[in-house]
Specification:
This protein is α+β, with helices and mostly antiparallel strands. The protein has four helices and five strands. Strand 4 and strand 5 form a beta hairpin.
Length: about 150
């Protein structure tokens, strides 16, 4: 009996940390090209700010993150903006200084918000509509986990 309890506890210890940090989006099938394009158009039409930026002051429990705009696509032309993540499993988090990414923001102008909804973001379709490939123009960078050097 004791061996069974130990094995069950070990199994639970492996599963719990993984599920606690995972995003709970369930995709029953991959969306088609046209579905991604329609979702991207809808997101961009609803967005109030679309930029590539870098977190210069991380978000805390009481203050929003300050983000420096590097590439501007849509919305007000500003040098910096403030954003508070939704805090859920599937929202962006701006808790690490130096993280850079493409921001599709809603709300504002004092504090902007991100929202992914119940479906994964159609990043490639958004990039096509903006005429910019984020993998080349502004690759994701997390200073805690630097990307590997490219082979020549």
């Amino acid at each position: 009996m004791a061996k069974r309890l130990v094995s069950i506890a070990a199994f639970c210890a492996v599963l719990v940390p993984v599920s606690a940090h995972a995003c709970s989006i369930v995709v029953t099938r991959e969306p088609t090209f046209w579905e991604d394009k329609a979702r991207a158009k809808k997101l961009l039409a609803q967005a109030t700010l679309v930029v590539d930026g870098e977190v210069v002051e991380p978000e805390t429990d009481t203050t929003p993150a300050k983000i420096k705009v590097v590439h501007w696509f849509r919305g007000p032309k500003i040098a910096y903006f403030f954003s508070k993540s939704g805090g859920g499993d599937c929202t962006d988090s701006f808790e690490i200084k130096g993280v850079r990414q493409r921001f599709i923001m809603f709300g504002g102008p004092d504090v902007y918000d991100t929202f992914m909804g119940s479906e994964p973001s159609p990043q490639r379709a958004i990039d096509r509509l903006l005429g910019s490939d984020r993998r080349k123009d502004w690759p994701y960078y997390n200073p805690e986990f630097p990307p590997k050097a490219k082979k020549r």
